[in-house]
# Entry
Amino acid sequence: MRTWNLEPLFSGYGSEEFKHAIASIEQLVEETETFKQALADAKHPADTIREYLDIARRRRELFIRAYGFVNLTLATDAEDEESHKWMNRLQQLSSEMTTFDTAFKRWLGDLDDLDRLLEEEEVLQEFQELLKRMQKDAAYLLSDREEALVAKLAQTGSSAWSRLQGLLTSTLEVPFEGETLTLSEIRNKAHSKEADTRKKAYEAEIDAYPKVEKSVAAALNSIKGEVNELTELRGYESPLQEAIHNSRMRQETLDVLIEAMREARPMFWRYLKRKAELLGHEGGLPWYDLFAPLGSAEREFTVDEAMDYVVDNFASFSEDLSALAKRAHQERWIDFTPRKGKRGGAFCFNIHPLGESRILTNFKGSFSDVITLAHELGHAYHGEQVFKEDILNASYTMPVAETASTFCETIVKRAAIEEAESEEKLFLLEQSLMGSTQVVVDILSRFLFEKNVFEARKETPLSAERLKTFMREAQQEAYGEGVDAGTLHPYMWVNKPHYYSGGLSFYNFPYAFGLLFAKGIYAMYQKQGDAFIPEIRRLLQETGKKDVEDLAAMVGADVTDKRFWEDSLAVIKDEIDTFLELTEARR
# Structure
C-alpha cells in the first residue's frame, strides 16, 4: 500500500474512540478552569505542580492523537470538510485551555524557592528543565484575558491564513504539455533528465503562481503582521529573538552559524558555476537546472526498491535504525505518492502515545526522493528515542529537530557514494552537494527574506510584487555569481509552508543547524565507531529537555565557536573539491 494507515489513531470521526477523545478534552477544559481558579490559594506548591503535570500530560496525549488524526487527514485531502470542522473544534478547545498554561507559568514565575523544591521533591526532578524553562517564559506572558483572546483570534487569524495557503497551493492546477498537474508534480520535474522538460516545467510553474499570488500574499501579510504585534506586546525585541528563545539557543550561536554560512558561499558558487559549465551554460547556473541530474545513474526507484535501499544502508549504522525503517514500511506509516488535494513537500509526525510516527512524501522515484525518505525516517528514529521520555519531556526545538534526519541522510548518501564508480559516483556526489546547497545557501536566502519581510511589514502590508522583489534580492545575496540572475525564483515564498505559521517563525536556520551539526556528529561517529552510537541515542533522547548548547556539550561540541561550524562546512568543501576534480576533464 502506498497510503498511510491512520486507524491506530482512530477508525474515523464517527468512531466511539474519537467521540470519547473529544469528550475527554472537553472534560479537561473544565479541569483546567478549576485548577486555574485554585492557584491563587495554593498552599502546597509541590502538590500544585504535580497536579499541573498530570493535567498537562493527559492533555498532550489526547491532543496528539486527535489533532494528529485531523491534521494527517487534511494533509492528504485539503478539501475534506469534516476534517476542517474538527480542526476548528480542536483549535477552539485548545484556546479555551490557554489560560491554564499562562496562569501556571505566572504562578511559577512568582515562586521564589523552585530550586529548593526540586531538590526536596524527587518526583519533580525529572521535570526540572521543563519547570525552570516555564519559569523563564513567564517574563513574556500577557494577562490571562489577553492570552485567551490571542488564542481565540488565531483561529480566524494566523491559523486560518495558514490553512488558506495550504489549500491554494495543494489545489493549484498547472497546465503542462496537455495535462493538468499539481504544484508538487510540476516541481518534481525539476529533477528530470531532460533539459527541455526542466525548463518548460519551471516556466509553467512560474506562470501558474499569478492565479494565487495575491491571496497567498494576503495570507503572508496577515500572519507576519500578527506575529509582529504579538512579539512586541510580549516584550521580545523582534520575532527573531522570540524564535531564538523558543529554540532554546543563544543569539551568539545563531550569529556564528550565519556568519560561517555567509563566508562559505564562494565554495558553493564554484560548485554551481562548474555545474552550469557541464550543462552548457555560460556564467551562473539557471534556477531551473539547480536540480538537474549529472552523471549516468539511470536507476529509477519503485517505492519498495527505495525502502529496501534505505533499510540496507541504515543497517550499516545500527540494527535498530534499520528495523525502524522496516517497521515504518510494513506497518504503513508512510503516505508515499502525490495526488490532487495532498499537500506538497514532506514531513514526519511523531505520535508519542502510540510510540509510532507518520510520514508524508511526494515520491516519484528519483534518488532525491530516496534521500527524502531517509530524512523523514530520521525524524521517526528521533521520535523513537524521545518516546523513552515522559511525553512532557519529548518536545524538542527547531534546531535539533533536523539533527537525526540529516544524520540519516548522510548515512545513505555516504554509503551510496562509497560503493559507486565513475558516472554513478559523480551522480551521487552531485546529489549530495545539491542537498547541501539547499540547506546552506537556499536556507540563507530564506532567512534573509523572512527577516526583511518582518521588518518591512512593520510599516505597511507588502504587495505580491514587493514580496517577489525581496525574494529575488535574498536569492541574489545568497547564491551570488553561482546562479543566473535572470532566472531566479521570485515565488518561493508562495510554495514554502514554513513561512505560514503564527507560532513558528524563522523555520529556516534550524535546517542549516541540523545539517552542519549532524555532519559534525557524523564525523565524530566515523572517528569513534560503534562505541559512539549510544551517545547519539542519548543526545537525541535528551533533545526535549536541554538547550542546544548543553546538548552539543554532551558530545564535546561547542556550537558558540565558529570553528565548529567551519569544521562542519569543511566536510562539504571536501565534497566540492572532489566534484571539481572529477569534472575537470569534462569542462
User: Anything to note?
Assistant: The first helix runs from residue 16 to 39. The mean pLDDT is 94. The chain is about 65% helix and 5% strand. The domain at 16-142 is CATH 1.20.140.70 (Butyryl-CoA Dehydrogenase, subunit A; domain 3).
